[in-house]
Amino acid sequence: MAQQLAPFPRSLGMFKAYHAPQPETLVLKEKIMSLSGDSFDIKTIDGRPVFKVQGNAFSLSGRKVVMDMAGNQLFTIRKRHLRLHATYYAEDPSEREILQVEGKFSFGSSKSVATFTGEGGRRESLFMKGDFFDRKASITDEASGQVVATINRQFLNARELLGGQQTYHVTVAPNVDMALIVAMCICLDERRNEK
pTM for the complete prediction? Predict the structure, then answer.
């Protein structure tokens, strides 16, 4: 299932502690008993917990808090309203914007561009392109054209059919920030839920 991705030639992301040391496949599984319906458990393919995502059912902006396994908040994802294309952003715990994921117009697929400031103040852009049903997506570094992550959504499984809960398999290239890629996957899920 997992695609082998070449190491990115330098560190790419915002959270150095979460850069993948080797190709890493994460499983994002929506919690069935979540009140918000948008809380996720995130583990490696072999079952090691990595992140927790807590959705807020009473938030107009669809707030999702991404935490480490000790419960420390890494960032919060929110929807930016009154935009032509679906746009999401992430704030650090001090409410400073650290990431924006903006949808782009496209026929037959979904496209988004994520922009953030990486190491050394470098402005970075990642391009995410999914198929029409958002079952698969690839994330590419815009400057080099290298694929840095892939997303596969399990489609028409019992969890989705009976409870509407999504399961994603996200493969991250070495030297790429897993927290950043998780944020982009959550934005893809939010955009899919709005269709």
Answer: 0.87
